[in-house]
Amino acid sequence: MRRLWAAVAASSMALVGAVAVIGLNSTASAATGGTGTGYLSTQGAQLIDATGTKVRLTGLNWFGMETDNKTFHGLWARPWKDTLDQMASLGYNTIRVPFSEDALKPGAQANSVDGYSNADLVGLTPLQILDKVIDYAGSKGMRILLDRHRPTSAGQSALWYVPATPEATWISNWQMLARHYANNPTVIGADLHNEPHADGTDPNGTGACWGCGDVNRDWRLAAERAGNAILDANPNWLIVVEGVSCTSGGNANAWDNIPDEPCGWWGGNLSKAGEFPVRLSKPNKLVYSAHEYANSVYHQTWFDDPNFPNNLPGIWDKFWGYLQKQNVAPVLLGEFGSTLQNPQDAVWLQKLMEYMGTGVTGMNFTYWSWNPNSGDTGGIVGDDWKTVNQQKQSILQPYLIPPVGGGTNTGSPSVSVSVSRSASQSPNPTGGCTATVKIDNAWQGGFQASVTVKNTGTAAVNPWAATLTVPSGVTLQSGWNATVTQSGTTFTAAAPTWAPSLAAGASVTIGFTANGPSSPAPSGVKLNGAACA
Question: pLDDT: is 522 or 33 the higher one?
Fold first, then answer.
């Protein structure tokens, strides 16, 4: 998980795109998405696949294997394949999987797995469950990044080792995983250690430093040792190296007269990576990673700047963005998130996504988190582990490159799909439905809307698809809770894979954002061709 910066007193500072609409016999033409073919490497600040094609990771974190449960959270709530289906349908192409060494120990047992909805996982070890998730994710064109999140399930650590897990164990376990997945390109690499950070106060800091030369504390040197050992075991993996919080390894001391260094979030300060780069035996496997959080997670001084949010790009440039902009190496924003309950947080997230850029040449990211049980950020889904947080998804959606496999990518996450229905599509048995259209938000040049459709028939509609008419000049930007597409002035919302059936008496709410005027509002809603009242 994410944590606040350590220098408390520092003075400075697709559209759910798819090439096919799930649940319909359809024809479609779309900009190709996906994460490429084979293993990944780097070319300057760009990730490329085995064919040399540019790819971009636009994913999220699904945590739990680092906790006492020793496996993915939410396995008590719904079938695990449904979860992966939903992630892919929403447009996430990569999953960052946190784990702790406790999950890898002989005799480790996963717990909190529902025996009814996930009967095929009962009795499996944490690694066996991970294997199944990886195999299914790979079949969907998704990628997996393994993240050593904690040395034990008890909690995070400032350094990459603790008495219960010395450096030798850390490296040995990484080599075991590298060999275990040596022939599986779904698993792309190792995020070596989560959020190394400062401990103690300057000038007597005892936490992770960058470039200080102390073999016991210099995270840059440790990353080299571990990274090269992993590449010896599996030369195909990416080596993902996070930043620190304060490059000295010590927190600021507010009670002395010594100027304090600028410090960032735990794992978020890569300001010295340009001067002291990580040196790997295979330089084209190095990816730098930072973490970035919102005001509600911790109140950083830069959130008070009168120039907010326009001051943020300069801060990001200094801590980690320069590595991408100067073509040093790719940057993966491995964690960032918020509940968005603070209005300032939504502004922060929109600015951050703009900063990372659209299309295949933008920065890579894995949002924190899928899980709703992340205390200070919440998740993409709500407490039922299924309902999508529409506010978050609408901000992220334009930047997602869906997982469709293949080795080419046009670089655009926007997808234009034309759908033609076949006679096999199930009609509404009685033709009965009601619909409500609501403009949730509007701004200069665009708006956000939700459409609630109720099946008033006497039988389920399976698969369901709703259509509505928009004024000329309105163009779809993103959608959620369905695969939303546009053809002319018609928006089509096709049933997602995790909820293909709309039962008699049941309702579904589809959300979307669009460019163009919000008035007149969308109208003419139909459910599988039947006009709704």
Answer: 522
Q: Residue 31: CB partners within 8 Å, gap ≥ 6?
A: 17, 410, 412, 413, 414, 415, 416
d(CA 124, CA 104): 13
Does the active-site annotation cover 195? yes
- The reported pLDDT for the residue numbered 510 is 87
Cα 6 from chain centroid (whole Å): 25
By the 10 Å C-beta count (0-12 exposed, 13-18 middle, 19+ buried), 431 is classed as: middle
State the DSSP code for 321: I
| Distance (Å, whole) CA 303 – CA 367 | 21
CB 92 within 8 A of CB 379: no
3 state SS for 396-433: HHHHCCCCCCCCCCCCCCCCCCCCCCCCCCCCCCCCCE
Residue 447, C-beta contacts closer than 8 angstroms, at least 6 positions apart: 439, 440, 441, 513, 514, 516, 517, 518
Strand 238-242 and strand 46-48: pairing? unpaired
Does residue 145 register a pLDDT over 70? yes
Q: What is the pLDDT of residue 431?
A: 60
Q: Which of 195, 242, 261, 292 is catalytic?
A: 195
Task: Assess contact for 499 and 467: CB atoms under 8 A.
Answer: no
What are 418's two structure tokens?
A: 């034309």
Supply the pTM of this predicted model.
0.74
| Of 165-179, 326-340, 475-489, the least confident | 475-489
Nearest 5°: CA angle at 460, between 451 and 137?
Answer: 75
Task: Give the angle 369-375-377 at the CA atoms, nearest 5°.
Answer: 45
Q: Identify whether 354 is a catalytic site residue.
A: no
Residues 260-307 have pLDDT tens digits of 788 999 999 999 999 999 999 999 999 999 999 999 999 999 999 999
Residue-wise over 257-266: b if at least 16 C-beta within 10 A, else e?
Answer: eeebbbbbbb
Over pLDDT 70: what percentage of the chain? Answer: 87
| 68: nearest Cα among 5, 149, 154 | 154
Query: Alpha helices, DSSP H only, in 91-166?
Result: 126-139
What pLDDT, on the 0 to 100 scale, is given for residue 505? 86
Strands 433-443 and 46-48: unpaired
CA–CA separation, 494 and 21 (whole Å): 7
pLDDT tens per residue, range 224-247 = 999 999 999 999 999 999 999 999
Alpha carbons 103 and 107: distance in angstroms, whole number: 9
Q: Does residue 411 register a pLDDT over 50?
A: no
Token reading at 249: 């390894």
